[in-house]
User: Fold these one by one.
Assistant:
Number 1:
Amino acid sequence: MSAAADSWPDASGYLLNHSAGLPPLSAADTLRDTLFGPWTARDDQVWPHWLRAIEGFRAELAKVLHSEAALVCPQPSVSAALTQILGSLPVAPKRNRLLIAERAFPSLGFVLKKLERRGFEVVMLPRSSNTLDPDSWKCCLDERTHCVLFTHVHSNTSECHDIGALCALAREVGAISVVDVAQSIGIRDVDAQAWRADFIIGSCIKWLCGGSGAGFLWANAARVEQCEPIDVGWFSHANPFEFDIHHFSYAPDALRFWGGTPSVAPAIVAAHSIASLRAVGLEQIEARNRALTELLCSNVPEQALVSPRDPRQRGGSVVLQFGDRQQDFVARLRASGLQFDVRAEGVRLSPHFYNSEDDMQRVLDWV
């Protein structure tokens, strides 16, 4: 694909990219030079160096999101980003419903359930619902809905949703839309402008190969000024270095969601990984993943596929369930040296651009 691909470690048999993608080998040198360089140089301007690195992280993410850096704010995790958003928005008295699918990542459900103490009502689309069908959402959306959380790709089924259509349903009833892209960004197109979502939350640990701690939120420019986050700190300030305890003014852009002293290391690693992936080509990476997952899907029994057969509705993972044969299937995959994981729904297998057809064949040998 590109010379940048040569900077990745040997990934033979590594199919855990839905959990933690492999950072490029050069990320370690970048982290050392950027994080520790100002200290070792005895530079008394450490923060300017680090803030430039974080601005680089925002800029790289913005390119992936088809947006601008001013609308991106670093966060420690996806659930932290959701907490920041929901704590910052004005609430109309008769709009107290929060809508989420029962199949969404549990951490986000935990955040919503805690808000019931503040008078919110959490409504969940049952696990049996077809979340790919907009009508499943439409019947639960009305003038009582304050916020709806959509998941672009579900982690345990790899169902990939038409987010533009779902966000349009939320707008029709005046509800706020938040989209979780943790399982899609880097392997499926995430277009903030086309979707017209109010907020997007995600992480770089998976397909963006950015390591842990590099979460983020994206805020629609039309929403930013309406938001007054409660969890603030000196980096939520329009001028973090003003140092006047009697004066606070929200940052004019998405950084108002930032909070106190940020973690710099995750942003350094993630920015470097995203830039490296963009050098390979995100469209080429998606095409490679689609080819490898299709190789699996077209050679396993239809009844074994938990993830959608239609590639347009499938994320970057293939989930397989063989019923009575499942334990034996898992044991044979492990014995062959493949790295993957197992959930109640099935075996999760997730090839990145650095995987090969041989990795897929090692799975198919035991189907």
Note: Residues 96 and 118 are 9 Å apart (CA to CA).
Number 2:
Amino acid sequence: MNFNEFGFDPRLLEGIEAMGFETATKIQEQAIPLILAGKDLIGSAQTGTGKTAAFLLPITNELLFVKENKRIKALVIVPTRELASQIDQHMEGLSYFTSVSSIAVYGGTDGAAFSKERQALIEGADVVVCTPGRMIAHLNMGYVNFEGLQYLVIDEADRMLDMGFIDDIMKIISYLPEQRQTLLFSATIPLEIRELAKKVLTHPAEINIAMSKPAENILQLAYVVYEKQKIPLLKFILQSANEHIILVFCSRKSSAKELARDLKKSGMKAEDIHSDLSQDDREKLLMRFRNRELKILIATDILSRGIDVENIDMVINFDLPHDGDDYIHRIGRTARAEESGVAITFISQKDQHNFAAIEKILEKPVHKGVVPIQFGETPSYNPLKQSRGRGGRS
């Protein structure tokens, strides 16, 4: 379906063309008409399906015909600073030929950035993209006026649930007018998200875009190892691929920091990126990574969703992700733009049962590589036995 079939304003179509969009994705085809019709919506779709444009395009189109100025008309709540910045940039491109304004409101910045946000909130940017904590900081100071709000978008709802933001979201919603159109997007729809939807949406339509499998051009490989073998094996792989751009995922900030320090001591040029860094420092690291100036980036799951870096040659799961969704999001950082890529996962003894669950989602086993003999004996892959060894739970 072409974008001119939605009946968008010519000014918006000009922005769509400038962004290089040609045909709508599945989520866009299904969501845009419903949003234009004024329906509340639950959209189940993962990152990479085009859901950002699925809500930005119809909202921007409708705001072109709203005469009221100096009011916040749309609020988009997201879990991370990176996603807030990315959606704001997306919005800036799509609305370039229109009069619709936007601002990203998120923490980790200096006082000048906070003052800029404050001014925009007082004057009434059309679209505000925010992280929960930063928005609450502004709300507590009493100058944010949501009386003219027409649209609320809750994006990556399951991720915000995992990060403990649901109470913050409900607090923000308490400041919003009851008469509004609410859109909720989530990669998965667990029971807690269903309960949230019942509280904040009115007779919503529902769209489910099936979770896609990893791209066929991703070579998936796993190594079954003892925990103490992970760092030596990682160094071996990195040294063997020293000209490649590699993203390494750790489960915790502390692990990412320790791993980066260890690699640097070994003479490797590696950096760690996580929520403890300022937004400016994180953006500088990502820019170096995009430009291939930095070859090894150690990250927490803050980068598994919503980050657009197209030149990553290899993703390594140093720590196993929590579930299949996270696994697919992580390895989906490579093999973008129809390029090929490699995804390597380390499976420690305690991870075997969880990795078997991931393989079930993938509907096929991931090839288990042979660990070089110099690293010593490795465990066998027997997830059922490992599960029983932790108390017999399946």
Note: The chain has two domains: 3-208, 218-389.
Number 3:
Amino acid sequence: MRRVSGSCTADIRDFTNMIIQQSIKLCKQPQPCKFAAVVMGSLARGKTTPYSDLEFLFLVEEKTSINIEYFRLLAMTIYFLIGNLQETKLKYMNIEELKGFDDTGKSGFKIDGLKPKAGNIPTGNGRPEQKDKFILTVSELITEYTKIWNNPDPEESMKGDFTAMLGHTALLYGDTALLEQFESAKHVMTANIARRNANHKMIQQDIRDFDFLPLETLQTVFHRVNLKSAIYRYPSILIFNLKLTFKQRFVGDT
């Protein structure tokens, strides 16, 4: 499993790098500052499956109106190139006029959906409050990560989407130093007790969610298994939860 998903991860990262390079050429504008295209999620963890979506962000050296305009254009160009591969289901684009269209084909290589609960891509999910969500300087990303990591609200900590997603990052293209700054800051962060308690609850919830039937039952009763979540994703989620709980330094620990 590790070998197959590792091979898939390497191929998708290489292919996405090629798309980014082609998009830069299509923009026909000089890059206004140093930047890094950084992957998150399963692609960063090395656990990609053939139908994993692409979650990525732009780390930029400086944010100005001109820079934002360029990186917005670059992001949209990447989206269009991926969409024109004709492997992306229309529902991922969340176009109102196309809702109800018979979109039954298999979904292949795609960006994270432009839907309310998705949009982990540079320009966000299309909602006004999400605009340019992941076009960030290093300091902005560190601030956002720290704010959620140290949120004392247990319910917010339990969501864990932002910190879990950025728990692993990897460079797709661009300036390595920008990503290294974020990684260095993340590794020395301390967490509060609410976060540790939330991590314990997350482990318990994951174990409940992935409570498999005994093997003899699987052989005699039809049982539908979600391959991505049940087979590929479970080990990495569990290990990540354990890492957060037992490897991080916590405020108040002796």
Note: The chain has two domains: 2-189, 194-250.
